[in-house]
Amino acid sequence: MARYENHITALSDYLEDLPDTDEPFWILGRRYHIKSERPALLLDISSRLWFTYRKKFSPIGGTGPSSDAGWGCMLRCGQMILAQTLVCCHLGREWRWEKDKRQPEPYSRILKCFLDRKDSCYSIHQMAQMGVGEGKSVGEWFGPNTVAQVLKKLALFDEWNTLAVYVSMDNTIVIEDIKKLCKIHHKNKNSTTDTSAQAGAFSYNHIHLHKSRTGRSHAASGYHSIWKPLLLLVPLRLGINHINPVYIESLKECFKMPQSLGVLGGKPNNAYYFIGFVGDELIYLDPHSTQSAIDPESSKVVDDVSYHCQRIPQRMKIVNLDPSVALGFFCKDEKEFDCWCSFVHKDILKKPSFRMFELVQKHPEHWPPFVPPTKPEVSTTGAEFVESADKLFESEEEFEILNA
């Protein structure tokens, strides 16, 4: 496969070529054998949307920076994990990108969500300014937890995708809270109560109807349940200065899950989007390359070549990973979430090692009540809204360090 001409400067732990090994490569829940499936492996990796530093975009906030070089790497990684969520949601995990090949309409719409302009839902402008509400000035480096909180809040203004974004707290994932967040109950059309305004925000192309736990359909009682596609983000600290080796095998298991979106992390002040592993090496997409911003006004079709990394993927030793990470998972419907819970119980929680996180059924009694977030009542557009985000949202608590 052709290598993309925009070469990224190799880092000290960059391993030049893919190893000729019998060990499997795991990429976002898919297994490959390099000796027989090298082209398929590289095509899968190059199909992931790749967001890097950009320059010459409109100043953030009107008077702020016009490039995110040097500070925006974690924001770009956050864009990549969210873009993978939207790809899975609209195109499916098996979708592949090839240069000069016509792509389905949702692909172009996904890409436009991330263009470097203030009115794109998940642009660098929106993310940087939403970070102000998390105590981060525009131009300041973000950590994985901050990016997770920013994505959760920006998703409230995304009426096309209608994602339910759950960010775990205190290393604990609460099944009851996620189902409360994702399942919306509506009266049926013949009901006397008009719910059209509330339901209109949901895209029924990728939201599924479900039966209640008793097996009796809600439709029989005048109600139906809508499941909003779930983006599950799990911020963790897996050690003090470096990742504690006791968590490495569990981290690998996360990449094997069909619901895997990868991991946000890296090294101090250098963020990467980890999409898989081979042996004891992590495979990642690197945002540390500065490209010129794409001008979407000059053409109706976005030149997408620079949004796909067509070079041999970079790798680093797992032991060099900074302990601050955020795991990502996507569950399109309730059945996928239930399957994910089963994977966690079997492959993460029952292994004879320290647990990376806890998965519990009920909301802890000592926690504040769980209230699904709602879009704040504002009379401005999303682009204008984020300029005063710190006044509308309270900053989330930082996650705790896991005890090893």
Report a brief summary of the structure.
It contains eleven helices and 16 strands. The protein is an alpha+beta fold.
Account of the 3D structure:
It is a single chain. This protein is of the alpha+beta class and 404 residues long. The chain has eleven helices and 16 strands. The protein has helices spanning 34-47, 73-90, 105-112, 124-130, 144-154, 175-182, 196-199, 248-256, 334-349, 382-385, 389-392; strands at 25-27, 30-32, 54-55, 164-167, 172-174, 183-187, 208-210, 223-227, 230-237, 260-267, 270-278, 281-285, 291-292, 314-317, 324-331, 358-360. Strands 1, 2, 4, 9, 10, 11, 12, 14 and 15 form a nine-stranded mixed beta sheet that branches. Helix 2 (73-90) crosses helix 5. The radius of gyration is 21 Å and the shape is globular. The model is unreliable at 1-15, 192-219 and 379-404 (pLDDT under 50).
